[in-house]
From TrEMBL, chains A, B:
Family, similarity comment: Belongs to the aspartate-semialdehyde dehydrogenase family.
Name of the molecule in the record: Aspartate-semialdehyde dehydrogenase
NCBIfam families (UniProt xref): asd_B, PRK14874.1
Domain of life: Bacteria
Source organism of this protein record: Streptomyces cyaneofuscatus
Pfam families, alphabetized: Semialdhyde_dh, Semialdhyde_dhC
Length: 367, 367
């Protein structure tokens, strides 16, 4: 008996995350039957390679979901908000990478290493994948939670500019090329001067963007920018509240104490996190090491005196979450400090969506 | 009656912090009588400008302290350890910027905005100035402590490469020029490839230095490096323990819970800190704003939705500690989150030493 392989639609196939997704699909070529590539009408007609074969991109419409079992949405929030329910109404299981449904009570928010079974209960026919910042840390934190019982997270991020999309990468590149010829650091204010931001620096609001294309509220080359997303009230950014709400939902801990400070750094790809995690019980670094060394999707890289700790340049392009600098708080035997890195374009986006989709495919194939 | 103006020796006048010190002395030209510039024999004979006049650099020796009231030591730990006691034995009050005496019980550790009177009790004739990372945050935290009663600090740093000395700045510049011509971020691993670190990346210890001159254990261009200083045991770096011990000593809180994670970022000058501060009593953001807006040495810059938050490119070259992103923890009414920036070469080094020296000068002049 041969099981039918489910059919797949990739909506947003021509975007940055779509490109990573096509590479993942090519590596896992035996999971899917038909693979249909979908994008905005502007990109329709382009030809892309997936699983070694050329495939024409179709324009997003109701009809593209005919006969589709699983539809991946790798598109902006507003596109998902409109089209994901349409795909679901046509019978496709939607795996959505946008923020549109992440906090919807009728949509499970899934990280396969942590709550795989949540994907099976999907009243709206939609499964959501978390924000890239949440995904950068939650696999490691979830493994420790299973052993020690998590009570509080205090997180400071070192976020890559690709987390702000292609414009973020373009802005960093342009700013770096502007400062490249200057004698950086010889005089105060070199960065702003090189970026031609003198007028804004002299005003009361120096954090104006430097380029019409920059998604950042301040220069990001030779700088750090402690603001990600939009104003969420009471001084918080939307990215900071996303980490809080998504960690609570994925871990099934609605009252988990969680505080995040989100900061962009001049790194192209891979988010890093400095994490203070307090648990219900005392923790031992040796036991934490054992857990992290054997947890699925986690690489333990922790011998700092020998130079072994994760940095973005080690981690970029890899699938797992890397953890190092694990140490017990000197004032609290129940708390661990850690430094965690994850590629925001791999596990942080396309890979987690692909993992959810494959678990749904297995369920369909078995059914 | 005209008071005699005290005489000053600047040991380490030819270094990076020495250069900043000469500019500060020129701005506060009326404080000191004779100013004697001192450096290693290698730099002796050089001519430097201070207070508008050319001055020849003398070689460090016992004799250079003859008749000196106050001696500033802006030199490596081992030079201070040897020569500061000699200067003190000749009757000079030593203000030392190195780590050699910071945790000595008979040496006060002074931040004039916080514990100015501690400088008057100096059994060894030596007063120490804190590490640049401690100084980047403690003025703001100390002001809040005076009102609310500090109980715990959890800090993650975004440290500038100049905190690792001139070699740190050189390493970042060299690495940036190597990556400048590449299509950064097009492929994973661009940074390491551009830096010619392929061999090391393939080994088990990818965090090897990229340049014989780099003080960092990993590439710092387009990267972040979660390790500063030396191995202090149990997974901690020396810089992390310095923040802990120095905050406790300066604030007079020997049992203060304090945890730091120190991370270098590709910024030339100005250290930034993400700070979680828990107090004895409930805190209100409005009251915290009032305190920070009026505290000496602090600039409040906190309207993030308008783009007003401190970043290194705003703060570099300025004297104060800048504070923004002040918000109350959503789970703990006694805790505040903040983002703090301070120029590690100004308040973080030369300025704090100059401020201590001026308070000693006032004491000598009055005596």
């Amino acid at each position: 008996m041969t099981a039918r392989r489910p059919s797949l639609a990739v909506v947003g196939a021509t975007g940055a995350i779509g490109g990573v997704m096509l590479r993942i699909l090519s590596q896992h070529a035996d999971v899917w039957g038909e693979v249909r590539l979908v994008a905005s009408p502007r990109s329709a007609g382009r030809k892309l390679i997936v699983r070694g074969e050329e495939s024409e991109v179709l324009a997003l419409s109701e009809d593209v979901f005919d006969g589709i079992d699983v539809a991946l949405f790798l598109v902006p929030d507003e596109v998902s908000a409109r089209w994901a329910p349409i795909a679901a109404s046509k019978g496709a299981v939607v795996i959505d990478d946008s923020a549109a449904f992440r906090l919807d009570d009728d949509v499970p928010l899934v990280v396969p290493e942590i709550n795989p079974h949540a994907a099976r209960l999907r009243p709206r026919g939609i499964v959501a994948s978390p924000n890239c910042t949440t995904l950068s840390l939650i696999v490691a934190v979830g493994a420790l939670h299973a052993e020690f019982g998590l009570r509080e997270l205090i997180v400071s991020s070192y976020q890559a500019v690709s987390g702000a999309g292609r414009d973020g990468v373009t802005a960093l590149r342009e700013q770096l090329s502007l400062v490249a010829g200057t004698e950086l650091g010889t005089h105060p204010g070199d960065v702003r001067r090189a970026l031609g931001d003198g007028a804004a620096a002299a005003s009361n609001s120096p954090n104006s963007p430097n380029s019409p294309f920059s998604p950042f509220a301040a220069p990001v080359a030779l700088n750090v920018v402690p603001w990600a997303g939009t104003d969420a009230g009471n001084g918080w950014s939307s990215e900071e509240l996303a980490i809080r709400e998504e960690c609570r939902k994925v871990l099934g801990l609605p009252d988990l104490k969680t505080t995040a400070t989100c900061v962009y750094v001049p790194v192209i790809a891979t988010h890093s996190m400095s994490v203070h995690a307090r648990f219900e019980n005392e923790v031992a670094v040796d036991r934490a090491h054992e857990i992290l060394a054997t947890a699925p999707g986690v690489v333990l890289f922790d011998s700092p005196a020998s130079g072994d700790f994760p940095t973005p340049s080690d981690v970029v392009g890899t699938d797992p979450t890397w953890v190092g600098r694990v140490r017990r708080s000197m004032d609290d035997p129940r708390a661990l400090e850690m430094f965690i890195c994850g590629d925001n374009l791999r596990k942080g986006a396309a890979l987690n969506v692909a993992q959810i989709a494959e678990s749904v495919a297995a369920e369909i194939t078995l059914a």
